[in-house]
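Can't paste images in this forum, so I'm doing it all in text. The chain is below; anyone willing to post the predicted structure tokens underneath?
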Amino acid sequence: IIYKKHPKKNLQPSHKRLQYIQRLRDESHRFAITFHQKQKRNQDKQISLLNIQGIGPAKVAKLLQYFGNFSSIKTASILDLQEVINNKDAQTIFNYFQENS
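Text version of the structure:
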């Protein structure tokens, strides 16, 4: 449907103008989504967990999957952390947040 000063005009799905507008819409959505994904990745790189020696994106993803968010990881006990990752890394993360709080 295209709105003008004149009454609205219904276009068939096979109409070239409608297909052009749909492609334009889809491309603008793709651009916006890609932009926001890049911003999110840049923010994720600045996460303090990734600054800890020996803690990489895979372990952070594992922790996030288990705890749900970063504040829960930050306040988790060492026993909770050990349920998800190995003892050494759990101790490292626990000590890091104890020192930086």
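DSSP finds five helices and no strands in the chain. Residues 16-45 form the longest helix (30 residues).
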